[in-house]
Amino acid sequence: MKWTDSRDIAIELCDLYPDVDPKNVRFTDLHQWVMDLDDFDDDPNHSNEKILEAIILCWMDEMD
User: Which GO terms describe its cellular component (predicted)?
Assistant: First the structure.
């Protein structure tokens, strides 16, 4: 997965952290959690606030 795979990342995070409310996740934590995903293979420096926000929004959508 790459940073642009927001939906796939969100699905993985939803499975790994079912009790976490994505609205309360700090970007620094989110960045690390994404980096720790087994299928994630992208440059850590390619993330930015817009990408992390997209992941959060997808994660919130997956929880509904």
Answer: cytosol
Q: Break the chain into its structural domains and give their ranges.
A: 6-63
Q: Does the pLDDT at position 7 exceed 90?
A: yes
Q: Do 64 and 13 touch, CB atoms closer than 8 A?
A: no
Q: Is the pTM of this model over 0.70?
A: yes
Q: CA 7, 31, 60 angle in degrees (round to 5)?
A: 40
What are the residues whose beta carbons fall under 8 Å from the beta carbon of 54, sequence distance 6 or more? 6
Residue indicated by tokens 């930015």: 48
